[in-house]
Design goal:
With about 725 residues, the protein is α/β, with parallel strands linked by helices.
Length: about 725
């Protein structure tokens, strides 16, 4: 409440000086009736204004110092504010209004209140010291006074002592006085109540008996310095045991009181009970470090524990299980998030039952992701045992809304020496390994493999670099010639995209095409490959001499691969037509290759764009034919004009004698294709014997290393010119 009021006050237009004057007005109204001053109340308010300014400046100071508050306490006594109620009312005003009118947003609300409390302690100490010195001064004055004034002096002494006693007893904070040996001499009622209400249990004690296991290491060193006179005061947070064994937490300010000659005489303790505040902070800490749904440690607390584990020396080892539930989204979608939450609570309870040994803990990272950590001398075996226990307890069905569900999970295990690893690195390796277990079917665990991690990280790096690579022009195309088997002339070329990666060098399509498919980048990449290939084909046609055999009747053709994602893209036909028309290449010079597996079970909606392209004159080739287990009868309904026979059928023909089974299979496929008026292209031709067998079997065109490896466009151009000559 106070900080928000303070900010509200600071937003008012009357400024800090006006708020300071309001504070001084409230202060003067509170203590003026309890003063012995001859000033009027407005004059007394003016007198209090510089004291209020000292408190405000101390509260705002970058280097906090309570000395100004001590001086204010002394000044109050000097201004004759020595009535028993003056100090109590002053402390009450400061506690209620100092932060409200003079607080600063540069500090947190808790820091503002902490500084305010320390200023109260110092003011009370200064007031007590000044009042004591005033009493001593009055006593000396009485001793030097004439015998005629003895009765008046005694009355004044009695009044002073009464006022001091009233202040001592009426203070809102605990006050105690002890001698230099630590024997408690006096305590006020507030301090007695803080310790349980039995005065003799406090007054009869020695401060050395109040040692607590959670004392800060330097507390008693500071105390020894104070009683030796080497320190005037110190302030610490210190716990005490109450009479019933419970713990009392306090902000303790201990000050040294000296006699008239300056020698140490007493020690004065001011105590503020902070037990409830500390319990609140502990509660807030628990809520900040534990999952609200399951009660397990959350990501924050787990990372703290993991970081502490990894920073341990002495050859310490650790084991970590990273668990992700299989199919949890389906349960959430079918039964709703409420049922999903109940399932997560049940899973959390089961996981907690698995990690009961010393050095083991379970945490929820978020969603349906959990982690289990184990430490000890034999984590290599222990972490595998922990993963097995987790899978075992998850195997028992969970009953939700009258239905039973079997919970499955995939676990990634990371184990090894703690030294030299960061929490982020460990979690990344565990996450990668967990997805490897999920890809293997789930309901299992996998152990981290540095090589597999490196491959996964490389894949991720390539995936994230793909968009920028296309923008930076890192892709290029190589061309592999397609050759007529009957006369060996160049029929065309297949465009094969490559990636010139800055770190990994030239990458083949098998390294990045699946990643482009997964991210959707295959569509703009495929459009770029189509445009570059069509442009190159147009260039070839312009460079070939006219009237050079077959090339004058049939244009040099370019084959471009289409991915399954491109087949489903609604802009396939429009993009292809736009490229052909803009560049001027005849549709018959373009062949789009589609893998057989992409067309298995294809419906008319998928075949429609291929039919449109085929009707325009674009050839459609069925690539990798023979690997998709398709029904041969389906060839009749596919809008294809070319079959590209997979190399697995022709490897047995690379040498004489050829494999008779392969010969029969290829012979049958060629006969079927020709009966359907389909041309047959064979890929992977590597020997002259293989090429001769395929020619005799009636295959139309071929490509492979026997003719040329994929290369720059100039390679095919030179081959074409050689054929023409």
């Amino acid at each position: 409440m106070v900080p928000s009021q303070s900010r509200a006050a600071e937003s008012e237009p009357d400024g800090l000086e006006d708020r300071l004057r309001r504070f001084a007005t409230i202060w003067s109204r509170a203590i003026f009736p309890a003063t012995a001053t001859s000033l009027t109340r407005p004059e007394f308010e003016t007198h209090l204004l510089p004291l209020a300014r000292e408190l405000q400046e101390a509260l705002h100071a970058h280097l906090f110092d309570t000395a100004p508050a001590t001086r204010v306490g002394t000044a109050l006594v000097a201004a004759h504010c020595t009535d028993p109620e003056a100090l109590g009312r002053t402390l009450g005003v400061i506690d209620s209004y100092l932060v409200l009118y003079c607080g600063t947003e540069e500090l947190t609300a808790e820091d503002n209140r902490a500084r305010c409390a320390r200023l109260q302690h110092s003011l009370a100490a200064g007031f007590a010291q000044a009042l004591r010195e005033r009493t001593l001064s009055e006593q000396e004055a009485i001793a030097r006074s004439a015998l005629a004034a003895r009765n008046d002096a005694e009355d004044a002494l009695h009044a002073t002592q009464a006022r001091f006693h009233a202040v001592f007893e009426g203070a809102a904070i605990g006050i105690g006085i002890a001698d230099l040996e630590g024997n408690v001499l006096e305590v006020n009622d507030t301090l007695t109540q803080m310790f349980g209400g039995l005065e003799h249990h406090v007054r009869s004690r020695n401060v050395s008996e109040w040692v607590h296991p959670e004392d800060a290491p330097h507390v008693w060193r500071l105390y020894d310095e104070l009683v030796r006179g080497e320190r005037e005061h110190f302030r610490v947070e210190k716990p005490f045991y109450r009479n019933d064994g419970t713990v009392l937490w306090t902000n303790l300010t201990l000050s040294l009181l000296r006699d008239a000659e300056g020698a140490p005489q007493y020690q004065l303790a001011l105590m503020e009970d902070t037990t409830e505040r500390r319990l609140l902070n502990l509660r807030l800490r628990y809520e900040a470090t534990h999952d609200a749904l399951t009660g397990l440690p959350n990501r924050t607390l787990f990372f703290e524990r993991l970081e502490k584990t990894l920073s341990a020396g002495g050859g310490a080892r650790f084991g970590l299980c990273y668990l992700d539930l299989d199919g949890f989204k389906a349960i959430n979608d079918s039964l709703g998030h409420s049922s999903g939450d109940r399932l997560l609570v049940e899973v959390a309870d089961r996981l907690q039952s698995c990690a009961t040994a010393q050095g083991e803990m379970v945490a929820r990272l978020g969603g349906d992701e959990f982690v289990a950590l184990t430490t000890g001398p034999d984590t290599q075996r222990g972490v595998v045992d922990l993963a097995s226990r987790i899978l075992h307890v998850l195997a028992t069905p969970v009953r939700l809304d009258g239905r039973e569900f079997t919970v499955r999970g995939s676990i990634g295990i990371v184990e090894g020496p703690a030294a030299g690893r960061s929490p982020a690195e460990v979690l990344r390796s565990a996450d990668i390994t967990m997805y490897r277990a999920k890809a293997a079917g789930g309901n299992r665990y996998e152990v981290a493999d540095p090589e597999a991690d490196a491959r996964a990280i490389t894949r991720h790096g390539l995936t994230t670099a793909l968009p920028a690579a296309l923008e930076r022009g890192e892709f290029f195309i190589e061309y592999q010639p397609l050759v007529h088997l009957d006369d060996g002339t160049v029929h065309g070329a297949e465009a094969l995209v490559r990636w010139s990666h800055p770190q990994h060098g030239v990458l083949g399509p098998d390294r990045f095409i699946p990643l482009a498919e997964h991210t959707g980048l295959i569509v703009p990449l495929g459009r770029w490959v189509l445009e570059q290939s069509v442009r190159q084909a147009m260039f070839w046609q312009r460079q070939l001499p006219e009237g050079t055999g077959v090339h004058s009747a049939v244009p040099l053709r370019i084959n471009v691969n289409l991915s399954p994602t491109q087949l489903h893209h609604p802009g396939l036909v429009a993009d292809t037509v736009e490229v052909l028309e803009r560049i001027g290449l005849p549709p018959g010079a373009l062949c789009l290759e589609v893998t057989e597996s992409a067309l298995i079970g294809a419906d008319e909606d998928l075949l429609k764009p291929l039919r449109q392209l085929s009707e325009m004159g674009v050839d459609i080739a069925l690539d990798d034919f023979g690997t998709g287990y398709s029904n041969l009868a389906n060839l009749r309904r596919l809008p294809v004009s070319v079959l590209k026979l997979d190399r697995s059928f022709t490897q047995g023909m690379q040498q004489h004698p050829a494999d008779p089974v392969d010969l029969k299979i290829v012979e049958g496929i060629v006969a079927l294709a020709h009966s359907l008026e389909l041309a047959v292209t064979v890929e992977g031709v590597e020997t002259g014997a293989q090429a001769e067998h395929l020619r005799r079997l009636g295959c139309d065109t071929a490509q492979g290393w026997y003719y040329a490896r994929p290369g720059p466009p100039e390679q095919l151009h030179m081959l074409s010119l050689a054929d023409a000559v």
